[in-house]
Amino acid sequence: MKFSEIVSRLGNIVTDHSLTTNQNHDPDITGLAAIDEATSGTLSYVEGPKFFSWVGKTNASALILPQDKTLQSQAQERGVVWIATPEPRLLFAKAIALFYQPYRPTAEIHPTAVIDSTAEIGSDVYIGPHVVIQPRVKIGNGAIIHPNVVIYPDAKIGDRTTLHANCTIHERTQIGADCVIHSGTVIGAEGFGYVPTRTGWVKMEQSGYTVLEDRVEVGCNSAIDRPAVGETRVGRDTVIDNLVQIGHGCKIGAGCAIAGQAGMAGGVQVGNRVILAGQTGIANQVKIGDGAIASAQAGIHNDVAPGEIISGTPAMPHKVYLKVCAIYSRLPEMYKLLKQLQRQEQK
After folding, report:
1. pTM above 0.85, yes or no
2. Cβ-based neighbour number of residue 311 at 10 Å
3. Which residues are catalytic?
4. pLDDT digits 0-9 by tens, 139-154
């Protein structure tokens, strides 16, 4: 693909490019690569000062750059064509789509699929080998159900939603349109509900619902549980990484991002646009306000105000956490000083 064609197809997010000053330098671009692994013929991108030095040494033939005249001139001097944009990473994401499209099977129902006669299947649906669809399930138009998926009774799958191989959708789960559920994930299984008695644990049946709104994506081997009553809900446009546990009765807002190995106990309420970094743990019934951010391995036991950034276990405001870390690294020195003072007092 010619560099000029890439520029044209990327649209309005491109604010400037090298073709404006040199139309004759229009190389063929055969693929994309990370800046430190790029080879001749590839397109890469630079975002942030950490990577600025790579403009002078990368082997890429084309770069997506920030709106920085110095970097643009440096690339041009090396014969590297460039595109300028306020958001290089976003533009690179769009460029990937010009070279790669995920596998999408054509509509068909494999003969080994087991589909109950009461299930309702929309138009243009793909159902792969050994899929099991149980009574009263509703599958929307254009849905893709990859091999070995099991869908329990009364579940609803929205239009154009993709269920990847070996995921399981439990009874009465409702999944919206344009969602993606990756392999091994379990949606709507029984929440962890037991009542302690003198003779042992008594199981509390989990009769509630699990609801995923439109455009939710859930990574591999994650679990989103249904509650005893009511619903567990994940808001639209929320993205969830691999190995995430969402307990029964949790309410997650719209536009959130939850990284790998995060876990939340039952009844947690997460606002809109919240970011939970990897291995974040949230205790039962905690409320996280809109726009809050929890850094990796944060242990959250108390409510978090909207917009607050927290770190550490137990979690605390990030600025306080940084001070604590600074003190923590000096503990051996402080302990040594303390022992010296104690010895002086004893004399």
Report:
1. yes
2. 22
3. 248
4. 999 999 999 999 999 9
